[in-house]
Design brief:
Blueprint: E1 5-11, E2 17-24, E3 30-40, E4 43-46, E5 92-93, E6 102-105, E7 110-114, E8 116-117, E9 131-135, E10 141-150, E11 157-163, E12 167-175, E13 178-186, E14 196-197, E15 201-203, E16 207-215, E17 219-225, E18 232-239, E19 249-256, E20 265-274
Parallel strand pairs: 8-19
Antiparallel strand pairs: 1-2, 2-3, 3-4, 5-9, 6-7, 7-20, 9-19, 10-16, 10-20, 11-12, 11-19, 12-13, 13-14, 13-15, 16-17, 17-18
Length: about 280
C-alpha cells in the first residue's frame, strides 16, 4: 500500500484541519482520500493517533468535516440516458475532440457516434482519439449500453471498451455478408502491440445491448443481449490495467476502417452503471 502523497492541508472555516491526498490504486486510478489532521509540536499528524506515539494512521471511516452546514451524500455522475444536448460531466474524449465525432441528439434521447476513420498511422486503439470514456466508478460495478448500429462500409465497428495500457472491447463490426460481434484484447497497447480477437458471432439485429461486469481486482467479463433481458457471455475474462498516469476507463466508440467520404454511425440510447452486482439489473 502506498501512503498519502501529493496532497494539501485544508483549514476549514470552523478551524478544523484536514489533509486531502490521493492513493494510486492501479486500474482504479488515483483515489482521493480525506484524513483528519492535527498539529503536534509544530508538526502535522495525519490520520488517527490511537496509540499516542505521535504517528498518525489512515482512517477507514470518520466523521465528515464541519463546514458550517449539512450537505447530502452524493456520488459523481456515471449513468447517462443521453437525453441532453450536451455531454455529461462524466465523459472524456481520449484526445482533443472534433465536431464530426458525435452528435448528442438529446431531444431524441440518444447520442450518435459517427464511424470516423482511424488515423493513417493506426496500430491499435491507443492511437484512436474518438473514444468516449469515463473513470471506473467503483471497485465492483456493471455497465450496460443499448445501441443501434447503422454502418455504410465494411470494417466499420462500434462497441463498449475498457481502456488502459491493456484494453479490451466488445464490438459489432460490418463484414462481407453480415454484422458480427467479437471480443478483442490488446496487451501493452502503448508499445504498439497487435490486437487479438475471439471467434465472431453473427447478429441478426442491428440493435444490441452490450455489457461489462467488473469485479474486485478489476476483472472484466463481457456479455451481450438482443432483447435486453437474456444476456450471453462472450470472450474471456480480462483484467483491466491503468493508463499512463491515470486509471483504467470504460466507455463507447465508433470507428471506420477506411477513408470513405460518408460513414455510418451508432446511436447509443443509454449507458447505465449498476454498482450493486447483487441487485437485478434494471433495463
Amino acid at each position: 500500500m502506498n501512503g498519502p502523497h501529493q496532497g494539501a492541508w485544508i483549514d476549514t472555516q470552523t478551524n478544523e484541519s484536514w489533509f486531502i491526498h490521493f492513493r494510486d490504486k492501479g486500474a482504479y486510478g488515483r483515489v482521493v482520500h480525506l484524513e483528519p489532521m492535527k498539529w503536534a509540536a509544530d508538526w502535522p499528524v495525519i490520520g488517527s493517533d490511537a496509540d499516542g506515539d505521535g504517528v498518525g494512521e489512515p482512517v477507514l471511516a470518520y466523521k465528515k468535516p464541519n463546514v458550517g452546514r449539512s450537505w447530502p451524500l452524493v456520488t459523481p455522475s456515471d449513468s447517462d440516458e443521453f437525453n441532453q444536448s450536451v455531454f455529461g460531466s462524466q465523459w472524456q474524449w481520449q484526445a482533443n475532440p472534433s465536431s464530426n465525432w458525435a452528435f448528442p441528439a438529446g431531444s431524441l434521447g440518444f447520442i450518435r457516434l459517427f464511424n470516423v476513420a482511424v488515423p493513417d498511422d493506426y496500430r491499435n486503439f491507443w492511437d484512436v482519439p474518438n473514444l468516449l470514456l469515463q473513470k471506473f466508478p467503483a471497485p465492483e460495478f456493471m455497465a450496460t449500453s443499448k445501441l443501434t448500429f447503422t454502418p455504410r462500409a465494411e470494417n466499420e465497428k462500434t462497441g463498449l471498451i475498457v481502456m488502459g495500457l491493456d484494453y479490451s472491447y466488445l464490438a459489432i463490426q460490418k463484414k462481407a455478408g453480415g454484422i458480427y460481434l467479437t471480443q478483442t484484447i490488446c496487451r501493452n497497447a502503448d508499445r504498439h502491440s497487435a490486437e487479438t480477437s475471439g471467434a465472431p458471432i453473427e447478429l441478426r439485429s442491428q440493435t444490441v445491448y452490450l455489457r461489462v461486469s467488473v469485479t474486485r481486482g478489476a476483472v472484466c467479463r463481457f456479455s451481450f443481449s438482443v432483447d435486453g433481458v437474456n444476456f450471453s457471455s462472450i470472450g474471456e475474462p480480462f483484467t483491466a490495467r491503468q493508463g499512463r498516469w491515470i486509471g483504467a476507463k470504460l466507455g463507447i466508440f465508433a470507428v471506420g476502417g477506411g477513408a470513405e467520404r460518408e460513414t455510418g454511425y451508432a446511436d447509443f440510447d443509454w449507458f447505465r452503471i449498476q454498482r450493486n452486482l447483487r441487485e437485478e439489473s434494471r433495463l
